[in-house]
Design a protein that fits this description.
It is a single chain. The protein is built from 14 helices and 14 strands. It is globular and about 75 Å long. The two termini are 13 Å apart. By secondary structure, the protein is of the alpha+beta class. The strands form two sheets. A nine-stranded mixed β-sheet has the order 2-3-12-9-14-7-6-4-5. The longest helix is centred in the first third of the chain and has 21 residues, at 100-120.
Length: 458
Amino acid sequence: KQWYQRRVRGQREADPILVTTSITSLREGFVSLFKDISKVPSSFEDEIRSSGFGWCLQLLNECFENFFAEDYDTACDLASELREVAWDKLHLGYWKDVSVEFRNLYSYSGLLQAACEVMKSNSTTISDETIKILDLSILMGGPLLEPNVQMVIDWIDQLNSSTKATQSNSEPKIRGISEVDNSKESEPSSKLSKLSDQPSSSSSTSHTTQTDYNIIQSPNAHPIVKLDDPPSMEEFLVKFMNTQTPVIICSAIENWPAFKKWRDFNYLKKVAGKRTVPIEVGKSYLDENWGQKLVTLDSFIDDYILNGSDSEKDRGYLAQTQLFDQIPILRNDIMIPDYCALDADDEPQINAWYGPKGTITPLHFDPDHNLFVQVVGKKYIRLYSPEHTPSLYPHSSGLTTNTSQVDVENVDLEKFPLVKNVNYLECVIEEGQMLYIPRKWWHYVRSLSVSFSVSFWW
């Protein structure tokens, strides 16, 4: 695959990089960028006009004109007004039904407002509010300006790095993950036993020599094949992908910078603390009290990792988030596993999963191959083969037809009797391990400690 070959050769396609080591160079960058994007595409104009919002195009034009005339106060006010209009449109009905051009309008207005805030400020640093505006332009905006917004954030990262390099490193030490109290939350079930040595799998493909985890005491539970060393590409394809067989690969990410760096909250706060990220709050997305909110990574770590609540309804989880597209400096800490090149036409979708002990992902399946990598902490994972789908009682309608109605840790056998005799695989995935979950295999996940995981879908 071309993307894989480029990565192996270390040849990444990139635009020329503007070096921004001062607020002056950042402002010059904005002027140059806006000369390129002020002429909006005709398709964007046509869609906005056909929706009855042609006046927004005039407002956008005036915003650019005032920016180039260096009337940043007026340009900022106009951009703010446009953001409010676009924001309202983004929150009408289902997200999937939102016009992409109104998301693009939100990006235009956000980028303009952020630029105006920088241009009219007397400060040599970038405000948290400006960074939040840019983050929201990525999270809520459309694809048209996403590369441009990301480029601006990269400029700001350069500027902040240059500024910090001139300051003394006198920040107070923030606790590492090993120092966080993980004892608040009980183990997944009263049926859970302490991790103990178990006989290794009899499978000839298992390289396990001593320990497999048998967490829930059930005759239906079976261990997942575990390999001490990563298999070759051919072996992985033939023995696991082609046969749809889950497997745990040990010693899979010891060369990732994230394997050491992400244990340190101070590092995460330093490189991404001011960035706004989406999180889930509540037991799981099936719970009636479940919700979503936008917070800075600083706030998430302080409020949900270091000082998290014992209550399930108040538990926060940065779940299934494309964090690495938003924050490339964290993307540089990980590497796409070579196995993702098998049966693939493009790079995989990479998701982040970061949260305290006790976070839950209900039993569900995904349509893609999944390499689930445990970078920090540990999680209990249970897998069911697709052949058992009728016995797992999927929701019959709505957005959760890929999710089971069954709480696998507290099964209501009167309501879901077929679950009783279904065999499943289980494991505790530890730091540095990678779990292959084949397409459409059901999986349930619960964190047993503060945990940071990365999944690759393709």
